[in-house]
Every structure is written in structure tokens, then in C-alpha cells.
Design goal:
The protein has seven helices and nine strands. The protein is α+β, with helices and mostly antiparallel strands. Strands 1, 2, 3, 4, 5, 6, 7, 8 and 9 form a nine-stranded antiparallel sheet that branches.
Length: 224
């Protein structure tokens, strides 16, 4: 049963944190692939200069729409990136899915990615997430609470620690600590030291950020 629409009708920061431990599921023909979300970034409204709400007018119809919709775009003509729209109508925000811990369809993921099925890079990094799960612009605008691309509630207790820090590879609003990840998970795409050196998800190469900040245990899971 996918997460209900009300889960997404909250600020992007809260949705990003609570998506950790949830399972992203993609259904393409007979192939079903899925992974547990272990890293995500929140993007806010126009006040967040790294957000598409601030500098990509073409995204307005989806970005300012109701939460729970997939926002997919092609980054630098190379990578498709998957975001979940957050907030009620008129309050822009989204969550970039940065990394998954693969749980279903690993052979299919490995074939799409051309890496070993036990590779920690199988679905680590936002471009690798979409490649592994076969997500393209065809999923842009999809309802994440129904259909072939959904996000399911955690399949086990959220007994993990969450850390926060600056987002990866951005130059605008680089001081905002809107990246969240599961501490110690080997599928997280960038360590704090690497975060400033990795290829950007949105914007130019970022400056080095401050050390990660523990958020709390992940046991609490909000749906409203």
C-alpha cells in the first residue's frame, strides 16, 4: 500500500526526513524494481536559490501543485532525476531521491546500470537511482500514491540514525542543511567529506560544507 497523499502535504524538509526507510517501487512491464530510500534532499520555494521554484519557470505547474506527484527532469542533458513534490497547492517544495538500498529486482537493476548486483553504487546517486529503476520523463507528473511508480511505507522498524548536512554540489543556498541520510548505510551516495566534490544534482560545483549534524533516531514516522 503506497504512502497516502496526506504524507506529502507537509513542508519538504519534513517529507525528506520521513522518506528515509520508505521503499521506492517501479513497475515497467513485467519488471519490478525497488529500493529503500537512504538519502534525500529537500528543495524549498523561491527563497531557496537552489530550488527550481527560484529559477526554472517551466516547472511551476508541477512544483506549485499538490504534493505526492513525481517531478522528473533531465539534468545537463545526461541524467534523469526523480523528485517527490511536497506541500499543499501553492506552497512549492520537493524532495530529490539521492540513493536507494536495493531490495527487489537486483538483476534487472544491474543490467540497466551495467554494474554488479552487489555494487554499493547500484542505486547510489540520483542519476543511478533513475537508471536502476528505469525512470524517465514518462514518469513526470505521475501520482506517487498510485500507479506504476509509488513510494511504500517502511517495511521494517525505522531503527536507524539520521544525519543532516548541506546538499551535494550546489552553489546557491549552499548553507542550508537540507540533505538527510541514514548514518552508516553503505548505499549513501556521498560522505560529508565527498559531498562538496561530487557532481551536482542541481547547480554548479558547491563549496565545502560543515560537518554532518545528527538529527535523531528514525523511529518516528509521520503521516499527517
Amino acid at each position: 500500500m503506497p504512502l497516502p497523499r496526506r504524507f506529502y502535504l507537509r513542508p519538504a524538509r519534513a517529507v525528506a526526513r520521513d522518506l528515509l526507510g520508505c521503499t521506492l517501487v517501479s513497475r515497467r512491464g513485467r519488471a519490478i524494481t525497488a529500493g529503500r530510500i537512504v538519502e534525500a534532499e529537500a528543495y524549498l520555494g523561491p527563497e531557496d536559490k537552489a530550488s527550481h521554484a527560484a529559477f526554472r519557470p517551466g516547472s511551476r505547474s508541477v512544483f506549485y501543485g499538490e504534493g505526492g506527484i513525481a517531478y522528473v527532469y533531465l539534468n545537463y542533458g545526461v541524467h534523469y532525476l526523480l523528485n517527490a513534490i511536497a506541500g499543499p497547492v501553492g506552497r512549492p517544495g520537493c524532495v530529490l531521491i539521492r540513493a536507494l538500498e536495493p531490495v527487489l529486482g537486483l538483476a534487472t537493476m544491474a543490467r540497466r546500470r551495467r554494474v554488479a548486483r552487489d555494487s554499493p553504487r547500484l542505486a547510489s546517486g540520483p542519476g543511478n537511482v533513475t537508471r536502476a529503476l528505469g525512470i524517465t520523463l514518462a514518469e513526470h507528473g505521475a501520482d506517487l500514491s498510485a500507479g506504476r511508480l509509488t513510494i511504500e511505507p517502511p517495511d521494517r522498524p525505522r531503527d536507524f540514525r539520521i544525519a543532516s548536512g548541506p546538499r551535494v554540489g550546489i552553489t546557491r543556498s549552499a548553507e542550508l542543511r537540507l540533505r538527510f541520510w541514514i548514518v552508516g548505510n553503505r548505499f549513501v551516495s556521498a560522505s560529508p567529506a565527498e559531498a562538496s566534490r561530487r557532481s551536482p544534482a542541481c547547480g554548479g560545483r558547491g563549496r565545502a560544507g560543515s560537518p554532518p549534524r545528527p538529527v535523531a533516531s528514525g523511529r518516528r514516522f509521520a503521516t499527517d
